[in-house]
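[job 0417] fold request received: Cytochrome P450
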Amino acid sequence: MPYARPWEACMEWSKTYDSDIIHLNLAGTSVVVLSSLEATEMLLNKRSSIYSDRPSLPMVGDLMGWNFALVFMKYGEEWRTHRRLFNQEFNMGAVPKFHHAERVAAHALTSDSAMVGEVIVSVAYGIDVLPVNDPYVALAEEAAESAAGAAVPGRFFVDSIPVLKYVPEWFPGADFKRVAREGRLLSQAIKEIPFAETKRRMVTGDAKSCFTANALRELESGDKYYQESTVQNVAAMMYAAGADTTTAALSTFFLAMLTNPDAQKKAQQEIDSVVVRGHFSDFGDERQMPYVAALVKEVLRWRNATPLGAPHFLEVEDMYRGYRIPAKSIILANIWAISHDERMYPDHDDFKPERFLDGKLDDPSRNAQPAFGFGRRICPGRHMATSSIWITVVSILAMFDITKEIGEDGQPIEPSYEYGGGLIFPPTILLPSLVITPPRVAFGARLCDCEARRVLVDKSLNQSDPRHARPINGVNVVTFTHFINVGLFLGLLPYSKVLVIKPNAMPLPTKKVQ
Ligand code: HEM
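[job 0417] inference complete; emitting structure tokens
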């Protein structure tokens, strides 16, 4: 099983063997990869009573300490209790209660500074994050990367031969034990540090309304189906699952805008035709912006943030279309292959929001958004993730043009198009080729079709020093701050993210809007 982009290898095998069901034998572990919507819906949705378990992954679960996390939990009573508490917070009807935090974060992203992880840290723990290099956001990202990288089936032998977990760290070839020890520190930290901080604030009376404080208060007020440890686990899961996935999707959005200026223009025209002058766009505008909605769906389809989803597990033998699926198989939904199925998505590698406009792909009887997985394990954060991405996309596009940076040779710099590995799939090193051209609007006010005042993306890593920002037509300086996490995860891929857009303290233009 290749570590780099295994979803593409599986898709290729599927084509080579002309089958949407591929069986792999990974050191004795049976892995079945499903590469079509038909097969995934039939097995993971319709037969969800037997396909909703997760495999035991000794590396990420026992050794790295992630057994507490809903996403890795075995299907059963404990999972049900955790999932119920999660759904209570994130079901579709509950999502509007996050709109305020999402709106604030998206607007801050365009006018001041904010991090993508801000919403989830505030929803889970009521903690306000620092504008740059916030330790809570950094911890969530590092921990999520560590778990997502280790959970790829076939990545570690110990997952196939669990007895290896007893091998001491000094034993030749047992480097996985060092990786596990380091990962364990992160899983403990993500679970304990922010939770302890919220509890401390509850004692001093400073805790803000948030999932942790509210669930703990309810617990004090009477008999509940959950315990304090459930609240702690669920909060840590939100925190770990929410930050990296949404960041990966937004990074893909920037890549898509860089490489598809026509789509960007169309979305901006739609936004300009709807948003009232002098106002930010808001959730109420959603229905009037079908193209932007389609663009968000295409971002999630074109480069899925989680191309292999999370592994499901089949305890008992099953038959499907004449194939015997062995008991104790890991089942992977190849979301990448499904989202790039030429039959459903002609010209699948092109970024074309239009494909979602005629509504045919939105058939409610089908899983129109495979990006969020399947069956009873479908992503419970999907409604919140979609609304967070929507408000960020609409706020950024209302105010900025995103174009390729021009190199010293006068030619546009092409983005690298490279992506990271693991279960979460973010574009790497996107930023050196990115230019944000404000202001389509004066901040807080709406579009002024002022001539392109090309302003700067600061290519340097020094985010806060205005000397690095380069005003092109005078007046305006905006620093697109970026953050490169060069921590080589498991000695593998350098990794960068779009985190902050930050105008500096210089006054913004007050050009009159006609
Ligand atoms: C673009 C953003 C996101 C994407 C693409 C995404 C995708 C996924 C996928 C593919 C799965 C596995 C589903 C399966 O097993 O079939 C999953 C599970 C999960 N996601 Fe998300 N997710 C996103 C955002 C979020 C957010 C914001 C949260 C929390 C607030 C979240 C919480 C979870 C949890 C807890 C699970 C495990 C569910 C279970 O095992 O029962 N996700 N997600």
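[job 0417] notes: Residues 228-259 form the longest helix (32 residues). Residues 429-433, 437-514 have pLDDT under 50 and may be disordered.
[job 0417] exit 0
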